[in-house]
Design goal:
alpha+beta; Hypothetical Protein Aq_1857, Chain: A; 9 strands; about 45% strand; globular
Amino acid sequence: MTDTAIDLTPSAAKRVATIAGKQGKPAILRLAVDGGGCAGFQYKFELAEAVASDDARADRDGVTLVVDPISLDLVRGSAVDYVESLGGAAFRVTNPNAASGCGCGTSFSI
C-alpha cells in the first residue's frame, strides 16, 4: 500500500541506500514508535527485510520507508530526514503530532 502519510527526504534515502548496500540488505527502512525515552515515546529505526502487507510506505530514489499501522497513528504527516551537524549525524523525524520532544531528538510526547 502506498501512503503519503509519511515522507522520506532525499538525504535520508541516500543514507539508507548506503547503509543497506554495505550490509547487503534491501533498502527498506522501518520506523517504529515504542513507549519510553525521556518524553514518553521514542523512535526506533532498523533495516527491514520486507514490506508487510499492512505497512504504510513512502518510496524515494529506490529506497522504501515503512511504518506499521499502530506507529503510523503517532507519526502521520511526519518526514524522516538524515542530518549531519557538529553534534553528529542521525536520522531525524519532523513530527507535527509531537507536543514536545527531548533535547536529543529521539523521543517525544503527544
